[in-house]
Amino acid sequence: MESEGFRGLLAYKKAFALAKEIFEVSKTFRGEERYGLTDQVRRSSRSVCACVGEAYRKRDYEKYFVSKLSDADSENTETRVHLEIAHSCTYLSTDAWRRLDGLADEVGRLLNYMMQHPEKFLRNSSRGKK
Predict the structure, then answer these.
(1) Does residue 1 lie in a domain region?
(2) At the N or C end, where does the chain have fewer CB atoms within 10 A?
(3) CA–CA separation, 125 and 78 (whole Å)
């Protein structure tokens, strides 16, 4: 994993793929949503990736690492809310919403696993550091 850095983390890979997919599907949202819902769902989904990257750089300190992962999880939940709103406003079909929400759920489970087991992701020399 070290040679790939944060890009080697499964949570990052899944979150990145989700952000790319959200970018593509949000191109179909109505024009009046360009600076509203479209912008918000894109920003929150990208922020998940950014927070995972930041967490990776904080892996010398368990509490900071977990805190950044918690931020990623919060952004992921925000993404899910925006997707649900997009679905309720008929910008997303039920099938598309279920697929994207399922992917976001998977990202959330991966992030929660990392938060529950930070020792598996910390640098060897930092295990036990607070």
Answers:
(1) no
(2) C
(3) 34
